[in-house]
């Protein structure tokens, strides 16, 4: 379970609710309306309303809580489903959208629009907008989605690095928490501690929880993850396993009254952090100092500077995992912990001995190995950062060896198909040569006043032609006229060539690019005695081959795409251009000989 994000959800969102706040914690929230009306998952309908008011409903008001926040539900496959909420009417009503897509900025803006419709009693417009979005297919990144005449949004790319100020979670986290506390919290997450983040504003609270986990990329927090705890789940804070939860400040005293052991508590309002251990001291000092220096630079405050600073730290800490990949031909790629821990720095070695037992690291390695052994490979900003920073000593020799082996394995079916097409083309050329020879023999018997030289000479044809010429009167013209083509029994040379290059005799779906290559070689083996008829046919043939050559370039390009998905587009194009050059050279050779 490398990532906990569902990358292929069925819909843009699953459920929309309007929930009324209970007067006391002993009562359950009331669902005022839902969309779609036929939503039938009763467990979700009972669970979601309880997360809509994650604070002491008897003591707080809207000005203390804030408006927008997010909670997370985990499904049976450990994938996260996000609940985007907006409090209205003095914190007494909550509008909630449930979706697998982490589109924080998009759904927060949509919630503002829905709240405006509700305040103006425009229920029809609200339902139309929800129905349009609910029925819309999952858009690709950077594509526009129209919700109404005046409302649309651009689908975000969830795989890119978060930027400031575009990413709301990272922006609030960077503004609310100072650099020292960010570093301590980062170290605590790398040690998989029990962590509680608290704030009086739900929007800031959930943003800080999501923003802190984003700094672990490409790894993901694998334990209990609840951005905001509702009152009925406060006992989760007593769990013996690692967790990362957010608790509204109005509920913090209740949490502290329980028996908490070795819990890290970050108070965002006061910017203070309580920790039972100095986890930051266990990290390599050079990595910490470099990260701290980058975070304090003014240029880091905007764009992807913050995310890239933590990405560089992750590459420095774990990038040498490439050196520990074990490749044995014919066997799956494995990971050797001993090789990974064997590092030149004693401080780094001490940290890596602890890191190999981290659940987030184990899941990361399993995800990488699964992609490698499935033949997919991977290329992301993390791997680029490892290469750019020189954090891998062998420059991924095992990975490069894997690429070479997988390419050969994936290429075998394509090469086999091309070889079949090549053999088929050879048979067609031989058949065509036999037909031409047979036709010339028939024409010799029918021509009383001329000697018609076959463009294809055979062992028997010279003597036979000499004997035939001795019995005929001398020709009255230098070159023979083009014979008339009868309706039956005559051969059309161009038609035969086109038929020989047809794909109708090859299994459907297989590539036949090699036909044109073999055709050129077969033409070179022919012994031509040019005549006017030959020149006519060859001119048509050369024109056809010139056009056909460019069509084959496209087929060769598609073949290279099937060889290996991990090849870069530039590499694929270079292979296609190389094949095109070979085709052009053979074509020119054929034209010269013609």
Give the helix/strand layout.
Blueprint: E1 15-20, E2 30-35, H1 42-51, H2 62-65, E3 68-74, E4 80-88, E5 93-99, H3 104-119, H4 123-135, E6 144-146, E7 152-154, H5 168-176, H6 179-190, E8 194-199, H7 202-214, E9 224-226, E10 243-248, H8 252-256, E11 263-267, E12 272-274, H9 279-282, H10 285-296, H11 305-318, E13 325-326, E14 334-335, H12 337-341, H13 346-355, H14 359-373, H15 381-389, H16 397-446, H17 461-470, H18 493-500, H19 514-524, H20 532-563, H21 569-593
Parallel strand pairs: 8-10, 8-11, 9-10
Antiparallel strand pairs: 1-2, 1-5, 3-4, 4-5, 6-7, 11-12, 13-14
Protein name: LOW QUALITY PROTEIN: DENN domain-containing protein 1B-like
Coiled coil: 415-442
Domain UDENN: 13-375
Q: Could you give a short description of this structure?
A:
By secondary structure, this protein is an alpha+beta fold. The chain is 48% helix and 11% strand.
């Amino acid at each position: 379970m490398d990532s906990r994000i569902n990358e292929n959800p069925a819909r843009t969102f699953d459920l929309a609710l309007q929930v009324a706040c209970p007067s006391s914690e002993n009562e359950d929230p009331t669902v005022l309306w839902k969309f779609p009306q036929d939503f039938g998952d009763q467990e979700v309908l009972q669970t979601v309303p309880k997360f809509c008011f994650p604070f002491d409903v008897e003591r707080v008001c809207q000005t203390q809580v804030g408006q927008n926040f997010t909670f997370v539900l985990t499904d049976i496959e450990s994938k996260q489903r996000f609940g985007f909420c907006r409090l209205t009417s003095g914190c007494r009503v909550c509008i909630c959208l449930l979706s697998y897509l982490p589109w924080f900025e998009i759904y927060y803006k949509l919630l503002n629009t829905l709240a405006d419709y509700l305040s103006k009693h425009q229920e029809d417009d609200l339902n139309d907008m929800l129905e349009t979005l609910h029925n819309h297919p999952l858009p690709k990144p950077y594509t526009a989605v129209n919700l109404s005449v005046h409302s649309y949004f651009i689908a975000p790319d969830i795989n890119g690095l978060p930027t400031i100020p575009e990413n709301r979670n990272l922006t609030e986290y960077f503004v609310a928490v100072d650099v020292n506390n960010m570093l301590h919290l980062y170290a605590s997450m790398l040690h998989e501690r029990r962590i509680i983040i608290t704030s009086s504003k739900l929007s800031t609270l959930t943003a800080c929880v999501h923003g802190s986990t984003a700094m672990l990329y490409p790894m993901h927090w694998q334990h209990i993850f609840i951005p905001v705890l509702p009152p009925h789940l406060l006992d989760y804070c007593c769990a013996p396993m690692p967790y990362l939860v957010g608790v509204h400040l109005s509920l913090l005293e209740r949490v502290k009254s329980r028996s908490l052991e070795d819990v890290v508590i970050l108070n965002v309002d006061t910017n203070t952090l309580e920790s039972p251990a100095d986890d930051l001291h266990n990290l390599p000092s050079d990595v910490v100092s470099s990260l701290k220096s980058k975070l304090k630079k003014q240029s880091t405050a905007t764009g992807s500077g913050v995310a890239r600073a933590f990405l560089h730290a992750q590459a420095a800490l774990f990038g040498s995992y490439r050196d520990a990949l074990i490749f044995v031909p014919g066997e799956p790629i494995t990971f050797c912990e001993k090789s990974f821990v064997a590092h030149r720095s004693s401080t780094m070695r001490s940290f890596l001995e602890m890191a190999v037992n981290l659940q987030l690291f184990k899941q990361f390695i399993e995800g990488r190995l699964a992609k490698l052994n499935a033949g997919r490979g991977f290329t992301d900003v993390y791997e680029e950062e490892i290469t750019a920073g020189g954090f891998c000593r062998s420059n991924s020799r095992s990975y490069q060896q894997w690429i070479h082996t997988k390419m050969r394995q994936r290429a075998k079916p394509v090469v086999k198909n091309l070889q079949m097409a090549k053999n088929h083309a050879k048979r067609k050329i031989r058949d065509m040569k036999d037909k031409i020879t047979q036709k010339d023999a028939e024409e010799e018997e029918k021509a009383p006043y001329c000697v018609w030289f076959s463009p294809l000479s055979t062992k028997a044809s010279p003597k036979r032609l000499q004997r035939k010429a001795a019995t005929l009167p001398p020709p009255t013209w230098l070159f023979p006229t083009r014979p008339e083509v009868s309706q039956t029994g005559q051969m059309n040379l161009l038609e035969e060539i086109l038929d020989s290059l047809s794909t109708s005799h090859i299994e459907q779906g297989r590539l036949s690019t090699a036909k044109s290559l073999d055709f050129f070689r077969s033409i070179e083996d022919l012994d031509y005695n040019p005549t006017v008829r030959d020149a006519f046919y060859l001119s048509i043939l050369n024109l056809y081959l010139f056009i056909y050559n460019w069509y084959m370039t496209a087929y060769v390009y598609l073949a290279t795409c099937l060889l290996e998905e991990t090849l870069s587009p530039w590499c694929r194009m270079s292979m296609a251009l190389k094949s095109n050059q070979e085709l052009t050279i053979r074509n020119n050779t054929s034209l010269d000989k013609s």
